[in-house]
Amino acid sequence: MKTITAGLAALLLSTAASFAADAWKEAEVNGAKIYTDANGMTLYTYDKDEKGKSNCYDKCATNWPPLKAEAGAKADDEWSVVDRTDGTKMWAYDGKPVYTFIKDKKPGDVTGDGVGEVWHIVKAD
After folding, report:
1. How far apart are CA 2 and CA 56, in angstroms?
2. What is the pTM (predicted TM-score) of this model?
3. Are the beta carbons of 10 and 18 closer than 8 angstroms?
4. Cross-strand pairs, 33
5. Mean pLDDT, each 10-residue run in order, the chain (125 residues)
6. HSE on the CB side for 67, CA within 13 Å?
7. Residue 99: Cβ-neighbour burial (10 angstroms; 0-12, 13-18, 19+)
C-alpha cells in the first residue's frame, strides 16, 4: 500500500510540474535567449506591475494577454503564480507577471519590446 501511495504522490507531483513546463519554454530570437509561451509567442513584463501583482486589466489585458496558469499550477524555480483580481491566475517570472502581445503574429515576433517604454521581453538568464 505504501508503494502505491508513494507512486501516486510522485505522479501528482510530476503532473503539477508538467503544468509549469508546458506553460513556457526557452527560445532564441535574434541571438538572445528569451522565454515564450508554449506556442512560441514572446513573453513580456510590464513596468507598472508590482512584484506578485498584475496591474494590466481591461484594454491592457486585451492587448497584452496574461500568460494564464492552470488551476493547481505550482511555482517552479523563478516562476511563480499570481492571483488576478478577476479571479484568474497567471504566471510570473522572478515575481513579475508575464504577458504575450496581440501584435505578435507568429513565433519569434518581438514587436512588443519597448512599447511605451514599459514593456520588455522576458530574457532567459
Report:
1. 46
2. 0.83
3. no
4. 28
5. 42 43 87 95 98 97 97 91 95 97 97 98 92
6. 32
7. buried
